[in-house]
């Protein structure tokens, strides 16, 4: 409709320009649709824990004579509060990835700092499920990139590992430097002993809003945006994210990103005249 009308108007200007304009319109419309979906989804997701908290606090007030009931309601309140915290965290992550050029304020970002932040972010949830978190190989490695976005990416992977694992399991984070033709890469692997992902779902989990089990995801404050954010951050840093998984056994998500020295050298080469 609209796109065709525009292309007809500018047709005399040459087909290349027309193509660009039409593509532009489609992209703008796609972004707008995603934004609308997102606002609708998140508003809906926020209403649930807020509503539950309000009901539960009333229940606590009415049960002041029964300590056991109060304790039970307080436990539920804690779960709903965690859900809210996770939703708000997801909003923060999204706002972090919305700037046009993430590498505008790129800097060397230390892996041990990123890992510490990611672990800190889900310490509470991991503690409640008695999940052990262990990190290795992170010393003296740095990635060239946007600190906030890299923190959002790794934070989401570690958070998922904790969310989709049963109690008393282990989440491992391992980093290493890998030699590659275009310059060294840093590989960060997040491994869990959780529910795993089927081959069919593996193809779709990086899409926005895709969740294998919406009820389970929602229970932990998931919106289905986490892995879309991870993929976006990896791509905008000239890196990639891949998944290996075995259903019922666990999953490993691997981020490969340019090593700080290598990426900086490439940037300097690009500026060399001639
Ligand atoms: P969510 O907010 O639902 O966690 P994500 O985009 O982070 O959204 O993940 C999309 C879906 O991929 C999740 O709903 C879940 O079904 C699946 N998933 C992600 N990480 C894992 C994991 N470590 N183990 C098993 N399933 C996972």
UniProtKB/TrEMBL annotation:
Keywords carried by this UniProt record: ATP-binding, Kinase, Nucleotide-binding, Phosphoprotein, Transferase, Two-component regulatory system
Catalysis performed (reactions): ATP + protein L-histidine = ADP + protein N-phospho-L-histidine
Domain of life: Bacteria
Membrane-crossing segments per the record: none
EC number, as in UniProt: 2.7.13.3
Domain Histidine kinase: 41-261
Location in the cell: Cell membrane
Protein name: Sensor-like histidine kinase SenX3
Species of origin: Streptomyces phaeochromogenes
């Amino acid at each position: 409709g609209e796109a065709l009308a525009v292309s007809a108007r500018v047709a005399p200007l040459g087909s290349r320009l027309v193509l660009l304009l039409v593509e532009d319109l489609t992209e703008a419309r796609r972004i707008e649709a995603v934004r609308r979906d997102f606002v609708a989804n998140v508003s809906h997701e926020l209403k649930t824990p807020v509503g539950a908290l309000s009901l539960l606090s009333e229940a606590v007030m009415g049960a002041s004579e029964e300590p056991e009931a109060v304790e039970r309601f307080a436990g539920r309140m804690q779960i709903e509060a965690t859900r809210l915290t996770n939703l708000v965290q997801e909003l923060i992550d999204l706002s972090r990835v919305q700037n046009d050029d993430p590498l505008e304020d790129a800097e060397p970002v230390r892996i041990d700092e990123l890992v510490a932040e990611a672990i800190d972010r889900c310490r509470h949830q991991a503690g409640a499920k008695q999940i052990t978190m262990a990190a290795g190989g992170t010393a003296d490695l740095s990635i060239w990139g946007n600190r906030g976005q890299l923190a959002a990416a790794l934070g989401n992977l570690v958070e998922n590992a904790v969310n989709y694992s049963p109690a008393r399991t282990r989440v491992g984070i391992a980093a290493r430097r890998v030699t590659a033709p275009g310059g060294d890469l840093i590989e960060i692997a997040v491994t869990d002993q959780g529910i795993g992902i089927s081959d069919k779902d593996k193809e779709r989990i990086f899409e926005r809003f895709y969740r294998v089990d919406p009820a389970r995801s929602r229970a932990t404050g998931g919106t289905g945006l986490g892995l879309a954010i991870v993929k976006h951050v990896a791509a905008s840093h000239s890196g990639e994210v891949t998944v290996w998984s075995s259903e019922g056994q666990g999953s490993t998500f691997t981020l490969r990103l340019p090593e700080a020295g290598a990426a900086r050298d490439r940037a300097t080469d690009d500026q060399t005249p001639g």
